[in-house]
Amino acid sequence: MEIEDARFSQACSLRELAEQHRASGNAAEARAAYEESVRLLRQCDNPLRFAHTIRHLGDVYYEQGERDRAAVAYDEALAVYRSRPDARVLDVANAVRSLAVLRDTEELWQEALDLYRKAGVMAGVANAAGKLALFAWNRGERAQSRKILAEAIDAAETAGSAALDKLEGTRRIIEG
After folding, report:
1. Three-state secondary structure readout of 73-116
2. Is the dihedral of CA 13, 54, 19, 125 positive or negative?
3. Is the pLDDT at 63 greater than 70, yes or no?
4. CB distance 134 to 168 below 8 Å
5. How many whole angstroms separate alpha carbon 19 and alpha carbon 109?
6. Residue 163's pLDDT is what?
7. Which CATH superfamily does the domain covering 1-87 fall into?
8. Which class in CATH covers the domain with range 92-176?
């Protein structure tokens, strides 16, 4: 038990270090720290911490252009979250969103939207609804696209100016 506690403590410290490196723009150092944290967490009995950490490692892979590695990390995180009744809805939503960004499928964006609605995270609702509005627009469903965009804008207004700014390109496409 002491060995696992030491591993877990070291894994958590490495994860914190990874987050600091990532925030400072030190991608290589962040990646190395996340990878070691994930390696240690695989040996511990804390699946939710593991899922959260490997999802962030997936984000680093994605940012470095390693889409295949990112997909594996996101899939693994999502499998853990979905297997755990104690997983927070927001954590599941964030993992689905990461995969949606990578794969850009309407089904994943719809799932992310549903989860963000359930979690009450308006920035997530705005982002996912904005993506779904574009899918509808590209199918030629103009009225549906505008309806979904209206939800995205309402959510963004609740979330704040950063969410509204992110919708600006979508608004220009749909509203003309």
Report:
1. HHHHHHHHHHHCCCCCHHHHHHHHHHHHHHHCCHHHHHHHHHHH
2. negative
3. yes
4. no
5. 26
6. 85
7. Tetratricopeptide repeat domain (1.25.40.10)
8. mainly alpha
Question: For residue 16, what are its two tokens?
Answer: 């914190």
Q: Which is nearest to 59 in space by CA: 5, 4, 22, 21?
A: 22
Q: Which amino acid is at 126?
A: A
Distances (CA, A) of 160 to 33, 114, 118, 131, 156: 33, 20, 19, 18, 6
**Residue ranges matching CATH 1.25.40.10 in the chain:** 1-87
Q: What is the pLDDT of residue 1?
A: 62
> Tokens at residue 156, please?
């963004």
Nearest to 97 by CA among 82, 110, 88, 87: 110
